[in-house]
Amino acid sequence: MPINSQPDSMPVLDRLNDQMREILDRQTVAAASAPTRDADDFRGMRLDYRAERAYWNEGGPRMLATTDGVVATDDGPVPIRFHRPTDASRPAAIVYFHGGGWILGDLDTHDRIMRNLAQHTGAVVIGVDYALSPEARFPVPVNQCIAVIEYLAEHAETLQIDGSNLTFAGDSAGAHLALAATLGLAGRWSAVTPKCLLLFYGVYGMMDSPSRRLLGGPWDGMTRADLDFYWQQYLAGANDARNPLVDHLSADLSSVPPCYLAAANLDPAKDDSITLAALLTRQGTANELVMYDGVLHGFLHYTRQLDEATAAFVDAAAFYRKHTS
User: Fold this and answer.
1) Is 33 known to be catalytic?
2) Average pLDDT along the chain, 325 residues, taken 10 residues at a time
3) CA distances, 119 to each of 63, 152, 184, 251, 300 (Å)
4) What pLDDT score was predicted for residue 1?
5) 297 labelled catalytic
6) Exposed end of the chain (fewer CB within 10 Å): N or C?
7) Active-site residue identified among 172, 176, 220, 323
8) Of the residues 110, 297, 301, 323, which is catalytic?
9) Which residues of 291-322 are buried (b: 16+ CB within 10 A; e: fewer)?
C-alpha cells in the first residue's frame, strides 16, 4: 500500500464522522468567545473548562441518589461523589477518576459520564476529585487516589457498598490514575485489588509515538506541544517520567486485573492503549481493546449527540458484568 494511502496520513478533520464534526463545530464556536488566557492562568482555564462542559452535562440518566463527601488523606482532603442508580443492598462500586490532563476537571465536569457509567453497569459510581497540577504534582494525585480507595474499602459497610467488589475507571489522565493506583496498591501489598479496570482513551507514559506525530491539533488541544505541557505540569522532575507509576508501559503489569480499553482512532494518545493491550495480552491478562472510529479524544463526554460515546458505555458495561458477576 502506498504511504500516502495509510489511514493516519489522511487529514484528521476529513475523517471525522458527521456527529463528531457537528460537535467540533459547536466547540469551535464556544472557544471563539472564550477569553484569552495566559499559559499559567490555571484558575481561568478551569473556569472555562467548567463552562464549556456544562452543556454536555445537562440531562442524562437520573440517579436514585447522589451524595457528596470528603475523604481526609495525608496529602489533603479529597472531595468524592456517590452516584447510586438503584437501592440494591451493598452493591458493587466503580471508583472513577476524571480526565483533564491532570490540570483541569472536577466532579461536575464529568458528572454525566459518571451517571452514564452507573446507569449502564448498575454499580455505585464514586467520583474522586483529586488535587490538580501544577499545585499538586506527582505523586500527590496518585497518593490521594490510593488513599480514597483504601478508605472506601475500609468503610464499605458504613458507606453501603461491597468493598470486596471494587472496579477502577477513568478517562484520559483519569485512566492513567486508575492504572497508577492499581500498580501503587500492588506495590504496597495492599489487600485492596480491583475486579477489573475500565479505561477510556488513557495515557500510560508514552512520550512519543506514531499517533502523536500523525494526529492531534488545535481542534482537540492535543498537539505534541499540548501533551508535553500537560506532562510538564504533572511531573515534579525529569526522573519522574521513568517512575513505573508514570511509565506504566515499562512497569510490572502482573497485578493488573481484566482491563477494558477504549480508544479513538483520531486520538494522538491511541498508541498508549494499543501498546498497553499488547503488553497485557502477552502476559495473559484478559483485556478488550475497542477502537471507536471517526471520533476525537474526549468523546465520552458527548452522549447528548454522539453514538460512539453511548456505544463505549455499553461495551464497557458488558466487559464489567463479565468480569465482576
Assistant:
1) no
2) 48 95 93 86 96 96 98 98 95 98 98 98 98 98 98 97 97 98 91 95 96 94 95 96 97 97 98 98 98 98 98 98 94
3) 8, 21, 29, 33, 15
4) 32
5) yes
6) N
7) 172
8) 297
9) ebebbbbbbbbbbeebebbbebbebbbebbee
Q: What is the pLDDT of residue 33?
A: 83
Are 283 and 277 contacting, i.e. CB atoms less than 8 angstroms apart?
no
The x, y and z cell numbers of residue 60, run together, are: 442524562
Predicted confidence at residue 5, as pLDDT, reads 41
Please state, in angstroms and rounded to a whole number, the distance separating the CA atoms of residues 31 and 25: 10
Q: What is the pLDDT of residue 191?
A: 84
Here the cell at position 311 is: 456505544
Rounded CA-CA distance 105/102 in Å is 8
Per the DSSP assignment, residues forming a β-bridge with 199 are 170, 261
C-alpha grid cell for residue 171? 478517562
Please tell me which residue in 106, 111, 220, 267 is annotated as part of the active site: 267
Grid coordinates belonging to 222: 492535543
DSSP class of residue 261 equals E
Does residue 9 carry a catalytic annotation?
A: no
Pairing of strands 78-84, 65-71: antiparallel
3-state DSSP assignment of residue 102: coil
Q: Which of 59, 128, 58 minimizes the C-alpha distance to 93?
A: 128
Residue 18, Cβ neighbours under 10 Å: how many? Answer: 8
Single-letter amino acid code for the residue at 317: A
